[in-house]
């Protein structure tokens, strides 16, 4: 068998661990493995290179992706899908490692052209359906938690409010988990948005109880909301990407000036940005990525096209790609309420 492997979308700690697991399993059973470079761009342009055993050693602790990545959408390029199908002719299977966009393309190619696709769920945002967790998320949460821990001591020394903006796009998974782990005093997420007035009230209450500092964690996709019903809108910059996504970031600064203006407490903002995506994966992400990769190699061996490796409880199972990309997995109210038990 000739098996292609690609990584698409934003990079994510654990991508190399998946590549290692799929490639080593396939090579050991005598298959040929081909790395497709730069995600779907490589499938459009035919950028591929064979992967030998020496290419897939020493990868477990390495961040990023040895195959590079892009946000190319072949459906947005004239003749793009035909070129992808042409290059797919030279492969018996393609393992796509990605989030909703990358796997959305794989699901569509499978549904519309019977393409031999297998998916592996990646994203620091953990917003993909069909799986309880994606790899990369634990690393992002660990990095954000460490940042919140560090913000505590400087916030306390200066009697300040510290706003920490984290990634997550349109879901608040990173904010809720890191906020809970780091003991945030307020957490603001897109799915269950508190108003600015409510947020300031919580901070005032806390200070009235004798605490002189507060930590506020805000997800980049949160829109400032007011009791009047008005909304500050999503804070974004630049052009939309090929999948129609805006580049988020900046809501932390807008929120910090609202807090300082309304409460009078000195406020600073820290935006964690791509720090959350860089560097070595946690042990948990290395193990999850490895288990996903091993399952993906089995799906290929068994010809289970259109399926994705997924985590359900502590089991690695196979779910249809179509299920995974049918919509975003939102933070459930129950989890947010647990975190909110410590607000203010
Ligand atoms: O989807 C992962 C993610 O890191 C989001 O949390 C964030 O909004 C986006 O990618 C940033 O994308 P880029 O790396 O293209 O700036």
Write up this protein.
The chain is an alpha/beta fold and 344 residues long. The chain has 2 domains: 2-136 and 281-324, 3-Layer(aba) Sandwich (Rossmann fold), CATH 3.40.50; 138-277, 3-Layer(aba) Sandwich (Rossmann fold). 39% of the residues lie in helices and 18% in strands. The protein has 11 helices and 13 strands. Strands 3-2-1-4-5-12-13 form a 7-stranded mixed beta sheet, sandwiched between helices. Helix 1 (15-28) packs parallel to helix 9, helix 5 packs across helix 6 (173-182) and helix 7 packs across helix 8. The protein is elongated. 6-O-phosphono-beta-D-fructofuranose binds next to strand 10.
CATH topology of the largest domain: Rossmann fold
CATH class of the largest domain, named Alpha Beta
Structural class: alpha/beta
Mean pLDDT: 98
Question: Descriptors for this entry?
Answer:
seven-stranded mixed beta sheet; 13 strands; binds 6-O-phosphono-beta-D-fructofuranose; single chain; Rossmann fold; 11 helices; alpha/beta; four-stranded parallel beta sheet; 2 domains; about 350 residues
């Amino acid at each position: 068998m000739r098996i292609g492997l690609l990584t698409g979308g934003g990079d994510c700690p654990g991508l190399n661990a998946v590549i290692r697991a799929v490639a080593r399993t396939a090579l050991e059973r005598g298959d040929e493995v081909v790395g497709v470079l730069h995600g779907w761009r490589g499938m459009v342009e035919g950028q591929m290179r064979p992967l030998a055993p020496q290419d897939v050693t020493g990868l477990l602790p390495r961040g990023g992706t040895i195959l590079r990545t892009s946000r190319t959408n072949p459906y947005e390029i004239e003749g793009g899908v035909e070129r992808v199908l042409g290059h797919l002719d030279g492969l018996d299977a393609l393992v796509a490692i990605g989030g909703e966009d990358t796997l959305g393309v794989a699901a569509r190619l499978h549904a519309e052209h019977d393409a031999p696709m297998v998916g592996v769920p990646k994203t620091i945002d953990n917003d993909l359906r069909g799986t309880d967790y994606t790899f990369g998320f634990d690393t992002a949460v660990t990095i954000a938690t460490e940042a919140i821990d560090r913000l505590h001591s400087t916030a306390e020394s200066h009697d300040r409010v510290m706003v920490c903006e984290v990634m997550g796009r349109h879901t608040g998974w990173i904010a809720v988990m890191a906020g809970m782990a780091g003991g945030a005093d307020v957490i603001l997420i897109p799915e269950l948005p508190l108003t600015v007035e409510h947020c300031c009230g919580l901070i005032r209450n806390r200070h009235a109880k004798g605490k002189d500092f507060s930590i506020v964690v805000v997800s980049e996709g949160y829109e400032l909301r007011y009791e009047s019903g008005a909304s500050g809108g999503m804070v974004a910059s630049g052009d939309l990407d090929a999948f129609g996504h805006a580049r988020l970031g900046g809501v932390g600064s807008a929120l910090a000036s609202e807090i300082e203006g309304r409460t009078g407490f000195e406020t600073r903002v820290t935006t964690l940005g791509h720090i959350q995506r860089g560097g070595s994966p946690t042990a948990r992400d290395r193990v999850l990525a490895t288990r996903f990769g091993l399952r993906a190699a089995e799906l290929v061996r068994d010809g289970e096209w259109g399926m994705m490796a997924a985590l359900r409880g502590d089991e690695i199972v196979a779910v249809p790609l179509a299920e995974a990309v049918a919509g975003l997995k939102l933070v459930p109210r129950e989890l947010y309420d647990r975190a909110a038990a410590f607000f203010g």
